[in-house]
Specification:
814 residues, alpha/beta, 10-stranded mixed beta sheet, 50% helix, binds ligand 26Q
């Protein structure tokens, strides 16, 4: 498209040229003509960062002047992905930069490719936090994210002969650093270990912490722009370092080694993101990371509040602190500590402020993901926090006892401290004014299961906010052809108001629009095939059906069930190679936690099935299985717009919401899914004609457990399933997968704990329905259209408005 060069365009270009020129000269001592692509990339980023910094300053001034209440979103992960393209689009400067760069022979698209993909998150929870930052800024809500500046983000995945290899993600020197603004002036210190002494001084109790390891927290700010607004928020990332003052006393007392250990511990804190998703490992360093984030952030928040209002009494009126899952739950005792120890509030006053300030979102009901810490280790690392948690626990247990006199079991279940463990979810519920789940089903399950006792006690605290995605990122910027078709048919209003996507429904009988949708999908598939040929050296057939399962590798997400269906299909084709079927490519993308051996086995299985099929030309024409390595935000942006079928097949009751499901939906992929997480709401909005729902419901799963689930019953009853499972023994491409067979049938504990076999038949049958539907092109395109039209509800804009209105009580700045 030709760029329209208005007067304002030219003046913006001039400004841009000046700023980039001065960055190149200042940082590299060169002119634009002399710059190589990497230098130009850095200068471009720094120029964008400057524009954002200017707007950010304006926002801070406005927030202050209007005394607006703000939200502070605490999260151990923010999976931002690349942001240059997004920022240029949000600022309306993409054409300006493209034009400027072309003058010096650079392509903006090539510059985009220079940006590393910062993987400061594992998966759903981290990406949700990033989508929320977009929605906050785009709707002018004053909000700030807080997290850790991990030196190494989530590992880079390589697949070598079917094995996952983990490589470090060195994103900062690789072009990530230039986005960050270090704020040395805002550094704070965080104390670990040592002992606590109490002393009465002039009518208050002085708390003295001695012999602590002191860690310095230095904030690095990343700016978050919104779409079509000047609101630019901050994501503040804390870096841990050792204070540069040597503790001379420690040295003189011969504690040289301790002093050195302290230094090592300090810099370890922000070294690396823990790569486990939905799994808790009780590692002490992780606890240190959590306290580090929480303590630094609270000092910062309270410091700013005090500077403006000179009191902390009105904290809940001006500050909402949100803890994203239990990972930052130490915010509760830390806020108590600061209020009492530093500002001499009484316990009751401090508790009242704390509970009215903090709110909490739960993201999982998987027992292995619920955080518990060994109380002794906890007390050693955080002695003062431990004292406060003990007091919170005692007071709470007294209250719980009064509500449930005589019910020891119940009070025990609800306690924070129990059997030598600290239960973080219990602390989070007790210390928050609102607790929410992330889909209707999940919020219901919370009230009926893990938080049932609390729901009896505090029914008004519990609510639901179904997740949402940054629709501009996942639709407008990732799928520009589809966005152009929407602009043309329903206007551009949906970009700001995603509910307007509903207007697209009116075109569901318009043959020419349906055809164009099909053409866009085909083009996206071609583009994707080209992209992965270039970046991964993998060849795929863009004219085959793309059936995609892209998400973290986890038993409950049941990539294994998908693989069993693929095996069945493969064996059927081998039996009958002339079967008249449309070719299909089964695409997988998934990282496994490095220590999760079973998940790595499943990756290997998928790769080996794929490799065996590659050797058989007759089968290869009809089906292929491709494992795409290193799934990250960038790969998702390319993959999702190219998908025909979206696999959302977790065991019902296990996936809290899912957000990938929403991204596929808004890009016109049709879902094959269980009634789990947000799939339930997708099915309600779409109607059963536009989504392929199968399998046991959450309630049926519960009943099956109660009756005693026996996977072998299903195996024995279904010859096709039996054949697929049996095929694991000889295996594929020369390797046996008997261990996976054993897992499904003969485990020492529970066989097939996520009921792949119980849902296999329903899953195969759903795939048959999908095949038939795809052959009716008109029907399929209508389904795709409905998926796009109904996806407005799943926008983060809606979701953030619900948080703002129902939980945080914040308003947009004017
Ligand atoms: C905990 C302790 C120690 C180390 C790591 C962790 C840890 C880290 C990450 C525990 C859990 C996570 C991530 C959980 C997660 O991503 N949950 C997903 O959240 C999404 C957003 O709400 C939901 O859509 C998904 O259903 C849910 O699985």
């Amino acid at each position: 498209m030709a760029i329209e060069k208005t007067e304002s365009f030219e003046s913006k270009k001039e400004e841009t040229a000046e700023v980039i020129g001065s960055k190149l000269s200042r940082y590299f001592g060169i002119s634009p003509e002399e710059a190589d692509e990497q230098q130009m990339y850095q200068a471009v980023v720094m120029s964008v960062r400057d524009v954002l910094a200017g707007y950010n300053k304006e926002l801070i001034a406005k927030t202050k002047q209007q005394s607006s209440k703000q939200v502070f979103y605490l999260c151990m992960e923010f999976l931002m992905g690349r942001t240059l393209k997004l920022n240029l689009n949000n600022l309306g400067l993409e054409d300006v930069y493209r034009d400027y760069l072309s003058q010096y022979g650079f392509s903006l698209d090539a510059i985009y490719e220079r940006e590393p993909d910062p993987g400061l998150g594992n998966g759903g929870l981290g990406r949700l936090a990033a989508c929320f930052m977009d929605a906050l800024a785009s709707q002018d809500y004053p909000g700030k994210g807080f997290s850790i500046l991990y030196e190494y983000g989530l590992f880079k995945q390589r697949i070598v002969d079917g094995e996952q290899m983990e490589l470090p993600d060195i994103w900062l020197p690789d072009g990530g650093e230039c986005w960050l603004v270090p704020r040395q002036d805002k550094k704070v210190t965080v104390n670990f270990g040592g002992t606590v002494r109490e002393e009465w001084r002039e009518n208050h109790l002085e708390i003295i912490q001695e012999g602590c390891t002191v860690v310095e927290a230095i904030p690095y700010d990343m700016f978050i722009s919104g779409a079509g607004t000047r609101t630019v928020n901050t994501l503040r990332l804390w870096k841990a370092t050792d204070p540069d003052t040597f503790d001379m006393q420690a040295f003189s007392q011969g504690q040289y080694v301790k002093a050195m250990e302290d230094r090592a511990m300090a810099s370890a804190i922000s070294k690396v993101l823990y790569p486990a998703d939905n799994h808790h490992e009780g590692k002490l360093l992780r606890l240190s990371q959590q306290y580090f984030l929480v303590s630094a952030s609270l000092q910062n928040i309270l410091g700013n509040h005090l500077a403006q209002y000179k009191t902390l009494k009105n904290l809940p009126d001006k500050v909402a602190i949100h803890i994203n899952d239990t990972h930052p739950a130490l915010a509760i005792p830390e806020l108590m500590r600061i209020l009492m120890d530093q500002h001499h509030f009484s316990w009751d006053e401090a508790w009242d402020i704390t509970v009215h300030t903090i709110s909490y979102t739960n993201h999982t009901v998987l027992p292995e993901a619920l955080e518990v810490w060994n109380e002794n280790l906890f007390a050693l690392k955080l002695p003062r926090i431990h004292m406060i948690v003990k007091e919170i626990n005692e007071r709470f247990c007294r209250e719980a006892w009064n509500c449930n006199v005589g019910d020891w079991n119940k009070v025990g279940r609800m306690a924070i401290l129990d059997h030598g463990m600290v239960h973080m979810a219990n602390l989070s519920v007790i210390g928050s004014h609102h607790i929410n789940g992330v889909s209707e089903l999940h919020s219901d399950i919370l009230k009926k299961t893990i938080f049932r006792d609390y729901y009896d006690m505090y029914p008004r605290r519990f609510c639901n906010v179904t997740n949402g995605i940054a629709h501009r990122k996942w639709l407008c910027y990732s799928n520009p052809s589809l966005a152009a078709l929407l602009d043309e048919t329903i206007g551009t209003g949906y970009r700001k108001n995603p509910e307007e996507l509903e207007k697209f429904s009116a075109y569901s009988e318009d043959a020419s629009i349906l055809q164009r949708l099909e053409d866009i999908k085909r083009r996206n598939k071609h583009d994707f095939a080209g992209y992965i040929k270039e970046t991964k050296g993998v060849l795929i057939d863009p004219d085959s059906i793309f059936d995609v399962q892209a998400k973290r590798m986890h038993e409950y997400k049941r990539q294994l069930m998908n693989a069993l269906h693929i095996i069945d299909w493969y064996l059927r084709l081998k039996e009958n190679p002339d079967m008249d079927v449309r070719p299909k490519t089964f695409l997988f993308a998934a990282k496994a936690a490095p220590g999760y051996y079973f998940a790595k086995d499943v990756i290997r299985l998928i790769c080996y099935i794929g490799a065996e099929i590659e050797k058989d030309p007759a089968i290869r024409k009809k089906m292929r299985v491709v494992f795409l390595e290193n799934y990250n935000v960038t790969l998702a942006e390319h993959l999702i717009p190219a998908a025909d079928i979206s696999e959302q097949i977790s065991l019902a009751g296990k996936e809290a919401s899912g957000t990938g499901n929403m991204k596929f939906m808004i890009n016109g992929a049709v879902t094959i899914g269980t009634l789990d997480g947000a799939n339930v709401e997708m099915a309600e909005l779409l109607g059963r004609d536009n989504i392929f729902i199968f399998g046991h419901t959450a309630q049926e799963v519960e009943e099956l457990w109660r009756k005693g689930y026996s996977s072998s019953d299903y195996y024995n009853r279904n010859p096709r399933l039996k054949r697929a499972v049996d095929a694991l023994q000889p295996g594929f491409n020369g390797r046996s997968f008997a261990d996976i067979g054993k897992y499904l049938l003969y485990s020492v504990g529970i066989s097939d704990p996520f009921m792949c076999l119980a849902d296999f038949d329903f899953f195969s049958e759903a795939h048959e329905r999908v095949r038939a539907a795809y052959e009716d092109r008109g029907r399929w395109n209508r389904m795709a259209l409905q998926n796009i039209a109904k996806a407005g509800f799943f926008a983060a804009d809606r979701c953030i408005r619900q948080y703002a209105e129902n939980i945080w009580h914040i308003k947009p700045v004017e």
